[in-house]
Design goal:
about 575 residues, 19 helices, binds glutamic acid, zymogen
Length: about 575
């Protein structure tokens, strides 16, 4: 008889314990204050350190970039360029910062042509001074800091200065990159730094960089001006000119980072924003996602095969336009509005069939015949990081020196970019029309870097993501945005899933991943397939509708995602 009340109390206690457990679990995943996801644990740590001292997402970004210059010198740094999307919480708005390299004022249209007038071999153009553009990363970060910095500028460089003085452990990836099949020891001081005694340094070795500590100290004390004018600028100019480049002191002093309007589109109940030109990344990712959404509405895209096929077809169409029409819109006319208009995209989406690949797509406007192919090489440099801070502000930044170790020219402890090889070498298309991405003085080469910030219907950041990977960046990013926002996948799962890429040619499937299993199905739909490594470096933050945040780090690289409480 007495057992009933006991059972009742038991149940009540059980119920309360359950509630407590659930509440603790939720507290463990507390929404906010912040998250940092970057390509190297020390860079992530520097970002976390800034957020923990009350810094903003921009403060964290600057500390992360300074550390990446030191510990991931093959990928990005103050000698290169970057694009940064910023989400400000109060009032809610997305801003685009452009720190892309510019071509020197003395550059000629035939810069990348041989004496016989044919385009240079790509790998001949990379090393030395000829492809070094005016670095833009620091001025861009300074511009963003003026508007959104919470900590003093000099504080942001302390983690990197400390590490450069005390040394950092060389990671397997950096050691492997020094062993890739490229002549990386052709120039001093890079050769002496990375190849002491003639051999590439090994993983696990502690490396100091006193020159970089000195450079960063000057920048910390005097601002970006210390880089663009005075001794550092003079060394950069002398090194570039001494190795066949055209960079001048005036080019350095005159560099301007720009704030631009981001490109945004409403897709899958989100406002998805990306970089405008001179990055093709924003426009092409938005085109692909819009085409995918429109094409999916026409079919029951329930199987993974169909979903991937539609994504790949959308990508063909996006790349056809990208390769034909896009360039630095400050120099050439680009029909941006038309290419992102509903009518145009609906017309293009109608070309997608769920049962048959359209093969090579033609660009959608006039002059359809001169599709420029996207380079075949696999890119191993460039870095992406994502930050969400305690105030709800966010940064999505992709940063690059182009090829691994850029131009191979090292000045003041950092590598100089070879970003000018992102221009089209041949200034004219097959029919004699000047190509929008031809070399011009002061112009910014077309990029594929695709930092993205997607906002939910409350204008809160839902997904902050980007990747390295050359022109494949666009596909890496579009796939993850689609998987998270359209298919409801969890960010880390989406990042780890095998990549599928189409740049308006063959369909590439990532080797040794479940993506390979799509081969037969895609072939039956008419895709020509290549299977190989697809080394993305996706780093992102997602904020679920209930405010819980997750970070995502790409296991293909060495990065981490760390929550800040
Ligand atoms: N330079 C390339 C771009 O701006 C990025 C290179 C890479 O991802 O490796 O599009």
């Amino acid at each position: 008889m007495t057992s009933k009340p006991i059972a009742f109390w038991h149940l009540l206690v059980l119920f309360w314990s359950l509630l407590l457990v659930l509440a603790t679990a939720r507290a463990d995943e507390t929404p906010q204050p912040g998250m940092v996801a970057a390509a190297h644990p020390l860079a992530t740590e520097a970002g976390v350190e800034m957020l923990e001292s009350g810094g903003s997402a921009i403060d964290a970004a600057i500390a992360i970039q300074a550390v990446l210059t030191l510990v991931e010198p093959q990928s990005s740094g103050i000698g290169g360029g970057a694009f940064l999307l910023h989400y400000a919480n109060q009032p809610a708005r997305v801003q685009a910062y452009d720190g892309r390299e510019t071509a020197p004022s003395a550059i000629k249209p035939d810069h990348f042509l041989t004496e016989s007038g044919t385009p240079m071999d790509f790998l001949d153009a990379v090393p030395g001074g000829q492809a070094v553009g005016v670095p833009g990363t620091l001025r861009m970060l300074e511009l963003a800091h003026e508007e959104h910095g919470a900590l003093p500028w000099e504080a942001l460089f302390q983690p990197a200065i400390r590490l450069a003085e005390q040394g950092f452990e060389v990671t397997p990836r950096l050691a492997d990159m020094l062993r890739i099949d490229l002549p990386l020891d052709a120039f001093e001081p890079m050769a002496g730094y990375f190849f002491p005694a003639g051999e590439p340094i090994s993983a696990g070795v502690t490396l100091t960089n006193p020159d970089l500590a000195d450079t960063l100290t000057r920048i910390a004390n005097r601002g970006a001006e210390a880089f663009y004018e005075g001794p550092i600028a003079e060394s950069i100019v002398a090194t570039v000119q001494g190795n066949g480049g055209k960079l001048t002191r005036e080019d350095m002093a005159g560099y301007q980072a720009l704030e631009r309007e981001p490109v945004c589109r409403s897709i899958a109940d989100h406002s998805i924003c990306g970089m405008p030109l001179p990055s093709s990344g924003g426009m092409t990712v938005l085109q692909i996602l819009s085409l995918l959404e429109m094409a999916s509405a026409e079919v029951e895209a329930t199987t993974r095969l169909t979903r991937r096929h539609l994504l790949l077809e959308a990508s063909r169409l996006g790349f056809a336009d990208r390769n034909e029409y896009l360039g630095d819109a400050d120099f050439v006319d680009v029909p941006v509005e038309t290419l992102l208009s509903n009518d145009y995209l609906a017309e293009r989406a109608a070309l997608i069939s769920p049962t048959q690949s359209l093969g090579t797509a033609s660009p959608g406007l006039a002059n359809p015949e001169s599709a420029m192919s996207s380079a075949k090489r696999i890119n191993h440099s460039t870095s992406h990081f994502s930050v969400l801070d305690a105030r709800g502000n966010a940064v999505s930044m992709t940063s690059s020196i182009e090829m691994p170790f850029g131009s191979r020219l090292m000045v003041g402890g950092f590598m100089l970019n070879n970003q000018l090889t992102d221009f089209r070498f041949d200034p004219e298309a097959a029919d004699g029309r000047p190509h929008p991405n031809r070399v011009q003085p002061g112009k910014r080469p077309l990029s594929s870097m695709s930092p993205v910030i997607a906002l939910d219907t409350d204008d809160q950041p839902r997904l902050i993501i980007g990747s390295p990977g050359g022109t494949r960046i666009i596909g890496y990013v579009a796939q993850r945005v689609a998987d998270v926002l359209m298919a409801g996948e969890e960010l880390q799962t989406a990042i780890e899933a095998g990549s599928v890429i189409n740049r308006n040619g063959v369909t590439e499937l990532e080797a040794e991943t479940p993506a390979e299993a799509l081969r037969a199905g895609l072939e039956a739909l008419g895709h020509e397939i290549e299977v190989g490594p697809l080394t993305s470096g996706l780093h992102g933050v997602e904020r679920l509708p209930d405010g819980v945040i997750h970070g995502g780090a790409d296991p293909r690289r060495e990065g981490t995602a760390v929550k800040v409480r």
